[in-house]
Amino acid sequence: METNSEKKLNRYEIGNQVLYTGFGSFNDAEKYAADHSGNLVEVGFKDGNDNPQVTENEAGLLDKKLHYFVDAGPEYKFIHSSDPGFKKYADELQKIKASNDKSSPEERYFANFELENSEDPIVVLKNDHFESVTSRERSKYLKHANVYEIGVVKAKN
């Protein structure tokens, strides 16, 4: 895997093709595919590794126009920072953290700053109760999860 610093995309070479993942939205991937003569594909990261597999729309990302989904079984939900419900959980987490810390207003401000600015945060719920916050990259290695991302594949130049 190589990270493209310009767009912060992950680049993988698979046979005679190049696969890009790490898009911030479905629309970003769609635009990238159009601008770079590529095709949208669903990519699965399975078995706790960083080896991408082009799937046959296994998670339905193409149909649902989603850019990220995690399947870790029925008891777990992974809520991406771009999902509508994320803010609710982030707010709840800040309240829990502040009440546990009994911190000063300045400390709460910095804690909020860290959560809002951490790279691509994911809230993990177990049986609809908050469990943890992780990153999009780290989610590939948790709970024996299957992580799906929208990707763009194109021929090597």
Shape assignment = elongated
Average pLDDT reading: 80
Class inferred from helices and paired strands: alpha+beta
The number of distinct β-strands equals 10
Distance between the termini: 17 Å
The percent of residues in helical segments reads 25-40%
Biggest sheet details = 7 strands, antiparallel
DSSP helical segment count: 4
Number of domains: 1
Strand fraction equals 35-45%
Q: In sequence order, what are the helices and strands, one letter per element?
A: EEEHEEHEEHHEEE
Regions with pLDDT < 50 over 5+ consecutive residues? Answer: 2-6, 108-118
The radius of gyration computed from the alpha-carbon positions, rounded to a whole number of angstroms, is 17 Å
Please give the structural blueprint.
Elements: E1 2-4, E2 9-14, E3 17-21, H1 26-35, E4 39-45, E5 52-55, H2 61-64, E6 68-71, E7 76-80, H3 86-101, H4 105-117, E8 121-126, E9 129-135, E10 146-155
Task: Describe the protein.
There is one protein chain. The protein is α+β, with helices and mostly antiparallel strands and 157 residues long. It has one domain. Helix content is 27%, strand content 36%. It has four helices and ten strands, in the order E-E-E-H-E-E-H-E-E-H-H-E-E-E. A hairpin with a 6-residue loop joins strand 4 and strand 5 (52-55). Helix 3 runs antiparallel to helix 4. The model is unreliable at 2-6 and 108-118 (pLDDT under 50).
